[in-house]
Amino acid sequence: MRGGASRLAIALVRPSVQIGHRTDANTTMKKTTIAAVGGLIIVIAIIAFRWRAAPSPVGLPDHGLGARGVAPGTGPGPGEVPGGGAPDVSAAAPAAAVPLSPDKWERIAKIRRDYDEIRVKMSADYAAMGDKFPGGLSAFLKQLALLEREMHADFARDLTPRELEDYELHQSTTGQTLQRRLAGVATTDEQQRAVYRLQREFDDRFALVFDLSPPALWERMNVQDVLRQKIRSELSDAAYAAWLNADDPSFGAMRAFAAEKGLPPAAGDELWRIKNDWTLRKLEIAAQEGLSPEQRKAMQTAWVGQIRSRVAVLVGADALAPGVDALAWLPVAR
User: Fold this and answer.
1) Per the CB 3.0–4.6 Å rule, which of 75, 159, 229, 291 could disulfide with 295?
2) Cis link prior to 55 (omega < 30° from 0)?
3) What is the largest CA-CA distance in the chain?
4) Nearest to 122 by CA among 143, 142, 146
5) What gap in Å lies between CA 113 and CA 124, rounded to an integer?
6) 27 DSSP 8-state letter
7) Reported pTM
């Protein structure tokens, strides 16, 4: 593995893997070895530097993990010329967008290259072990997310807070997702940065969470609902609609259905909110402890009735009939 500002060494030592982190005049080397169980175990070292939110965060997997946590694939790093040489800042991020010096581009490229090599090895190990991989897919995705977090901690040591945000706004999973969601929509640089910071805070919190239990899902969706409200306050109506439809395509489907019924976009927005309320409350009921099966069923039945009534008042009782694609989420009357 090539050296540089981000020299990493991967060594398989019986049941464990060790990752040695780079050392330079300004940084002391910190190494953590994580051991797992089985014939072959992948270990990710976690650097003691915190992964912070701007200004100083994937996927659940998207998350991205969802999720959201899986970095770009292998190959030359951003701005790196295949085969080495001086970095080409126009290769992945225009210099105007990410104004880094050639030296910093080179260091960032080496960091990415080193972590890409680790990621390739980890992916190969997972593919070879399949169902026998300790912890299964969730454990593998968590390791990838941890690796991504380590890589950005390395970036933070070489870049100023502003440079780091500039870079991540165009190159991180969160930043690239934001660019896609707002593509073709008029937004200012400050609006994009504000949305990026909000989304990154959410991604940081949930990138390593793979708990699919009702309480965990309810918490995540509640936080996501707050996130959307904050983002709504940062964007214009058109920009927010584009962002939300990319985040949840059912938003566009609700608007399209409202238009078919001769209703204004606001009706589609309200229909989407009803759908969102339905899911939130359904998870909340499922997450409540101490309820008997009869109590839980009664609460669910009452909530189904309320949701169907709200939809009927908004778009007409005929929409409650089966076969309406946009309302496939609508619960059946109990």
Assistant:
1) 291
2) yes
3) 72
4) 143
5) 17
6) B
7) 0.66
Q: List residues bridging with 18 in a β-sheet.
A: 11
Q: Judge contact between 303 and 230, C-beta under 8 A.
A: no
Start-to-end C-alpha separation, the chain: 62
- Across the chain, mean pLDDT equals 75
- Report whether 175 contacts 168 (CB < 8 A): yes
What is the CA 270 to chain-centroid distance, rounded?
26
- Of the pLDDT bands very low, low, confident and very high (cuts 50, 70, 90), residue 165 is very high
- For 112-133, what is the mean pLDDT? 91
How many Cα atoms are found within 13 Å in the side-chain-facing hemisphere of 152? 32
For residue 67, what are the β-bridge partners?
Answer: 65
57 three-class SS: coil
- Tell me the two tokens of residue 71: 């970095």
Q: Rounded to 10 degrees, what is the CA torsion of 275, 280, 281, 285?
A: 140
pLDDT band for position 73 (50/70/90)?
very low
